[in-house]
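Design a sequence for this backbone.
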């Protein structure tokens, strides 16, 4: 099954719709602990830790803790780049590329969502009932995936998800709300993955 997902995602990158991740969905980070290191220089580097704190949500814990470690096996390597891209969940190799020039807080938070195991909201199983298109690509031409890390059906479609592109257009009367941080439902997904609970 993992191979199928990997092949489908490769096809998606190459043929259908640009996505910012390039491997299959890994597992959850052991104990919710995410060691990370940085490689290269970034402008506004403090935005990385600011975005990490958003996912930890100390006011209502998500079970996640990011902490610095020397680079090595099992450590998320954050790479200075000119694009945004990340692996999904915990893998043999865990990388997150950040555009060192723009260092957009919302983009960093989005990529960290992938690192923790989230896929795009516009690619969930029922996206076609909520989204018309993203960046003029019709929803029927965007591959849908079932996230193996939690039961998506237990959470409603989230028009305010940081995992939606702001270029997506709603098909319903509920508009897509562009956010700079994770929504309440995004955080509920993380709790569902790491604390085995649903709201
Ligand atoms: Zn993405």
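Sequence:
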């Amino acid at each position: 099954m993992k191979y199928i997902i990997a092949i489908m995602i490769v096809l998606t990158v190459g043929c259908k719709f640009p996505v910012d991740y390039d491997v299959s969905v890994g597992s959850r980070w052991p104990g919710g602990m995410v060691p990370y290191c940085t490689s290269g220089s970034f402008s506004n580097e403090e935005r990385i830790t600011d975005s990490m704190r958003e996912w930890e949500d100390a006011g209502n814990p998500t079970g996640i803790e990011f902490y610095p470690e020397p680079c090595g096996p099992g450590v998320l390597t954050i790479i200075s780049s000119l694009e945004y891209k990340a692996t999904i969940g915990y893998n043999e190799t865990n990388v997150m590329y950040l555009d060192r020039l723009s260092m957009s807080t919302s983009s960093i938070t989005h990529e960290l969502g992938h690192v923790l195991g989230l896929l795009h909201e516009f690619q969930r199983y029922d996206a076609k009932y909520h989204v018309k298109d993203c960046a003029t690509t019709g929803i029927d031409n965007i591959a849908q995936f079932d996230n193996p890390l939690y039961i998506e059906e237990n959470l409603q479609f989230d028009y305010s998800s940081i995992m939606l592109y702001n270029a997506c257009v709603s098909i319903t009367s509920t508009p897509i709300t562009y956010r700079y941080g994770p929504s309440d439902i995004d955080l509920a997904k993380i709790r569902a993955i790491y604390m085995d609970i649903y709201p």
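The chain has two domains: 2-116, 121-194.
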